[in-house]
Amino acid sequence: MRPAGAEDRLALAAAAGDHAALASLLDTYYEPIHRMAWRWCGSADRAEDVAQDVCVKIAGGIRAFKGEAAFATWVWRITYNAALDHLRRSDRQKPTPENEIMALIDDASHETPETNAIDGDLWRAVRALPPQQRDAVLLIYAEDMSHAEAAAVMGCNEKTVSWHLHTARKTLKHRLEAAE
Question: Does the pTM of the predicted model rise above 0.85?
Answer without folding.
Answer: no
